[in-house]
Amino acid sequence: MKKAYFPRMLNGFILTDEQIKQFDGFMKKYRNKPDRYIFREIAKVKNEVSEEVLQQHIKNLDLLEQMEGFVQDQNKERIKTVRKILTTNTASFNQKQQSAPATQFVSGASLLLWFLILVAIWPRSYYRY
Question: For the segment 32-86, what is each residue's pLDDT rounded down to a tens digit?
């Protein structure tokens, strides 16, 4: 039987098999990391995507927050935390360079950022391994 976990269900409709494999790799790497580590990773990875892609992630976060019955109050609080990380420039992290190349929304650093966002919103206890 195939592994099933929440991010795969959420993204299985839009991701290719190769991208799902990348998601599985991310899960192996990050599944036992504490929230603080995940939040730091979001702050780092956000600097590796273009401003356009970052804005797409923020917009999707806003839409996700509005899903009645799907997002609980605790998830909404976590969404606020993630949104704050995505929208805040801090000196402790490398600033995004003006010349950062645009990346596709579901590839490379952008895919990792989306994965980290989902993991930050839904604690790892939601997933089956």
Answer: 899 999 999 999 999 999 999 999 999 999 998 888 887 888 999 999 999 999 9
Within 10 angstroms of residue 119's Cβ, the number of other Cβ atoms is: 24
Residue 44 lies in a domain: yes
Integer Cα distance of 59 and 63 in angstroms: 6
The full DSSP string for 109-129 is: HHHHHHHHHHHHHS-GGG---
Q: Which amino acid is at 116?
A: L
Residue 63 inside a domain? The answer is yes
Q: Is residue 69 part of a domain?
A: yes
In eight-state DSSP terms, residue 100 is P
pTM value > 0.70: yes
Contacts for 106 with CB less than 8 Å, ≥ 6 apart = 14, 15, 19, 114
| Residue where the block lists tokens 């806003």 | 62
